[in-house]
Structure formats: C-alpha cells, structure tokens
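Minutes, project check-in
Item: structure for the 114-residue chain
Input as provided by the requester:
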Amino acid sequence: MKIKESMYKKVAVLDLRGKLMGPPATTSLVEDVQNLLKDGVTRIVLDLKHVNWINSLGLGSIVKSLTAVRNKSGALYLAGLSAKVKSLMVMSQLSKIVTILDNAEEAVKELNKK
C-alpha cells in the first residue's frame, strides 16, 4: 500500500494505492490522518480509486480515521470507490456514516466550500 498526500487549499487528499488489508497499510493510514490533524488539517479526502480490496482491518482503519477527524470537528470523505469496494461499504453500512463521492476532485470542491 502506497499513500501519497496532496493539499488543495484547506483539503488534504490521501491517494491510496494497493490493498487496505492490515498492517502496515492500515497503521500508515491512521498515522497519516493523525499527523494531518496535528498540523491543523481537518478536511481530508481518502481517494480509493486505486484500492482494489479492503478487508475488516481496512474498514476499521477508515472508521478510526473518521472518528479522529470528527473529534476535531472535521470532515473525512471517501472518493473514487470501485464497484467492489463500494459494495463492501454498503454491506458494512459504513456508507451511512461517511460521505462517498465519485472522485477526489468533487470531494475537494465540496470540502473547500465548508
């Protein structure tokens, strides 16, 4: 799993590539989000267009990241989900608590309005 960070005004985009299926990928994701929060960045997009699979540990790392961001009165959006990953979000009902958009550009635009 590779994570590339980019900033667009006040929004950080974490571009994830590979599989989100346990350490070290899940640990890296949570640490990256926590580091952004320490730097005062509270609007974050997880761009998952290059993630082909997520297991329960991966879902847990997204929930942990979402909780940390919301505890700082921030917002975390998911973007670019494949059909496979999106169906997992629906089955796990995570789609009911996190905003999911078609692409990172749309998510950045939404978060920069806040």
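Outcome recorded: The first helix runs from residue 25 to 38.
No further action items on this chain.
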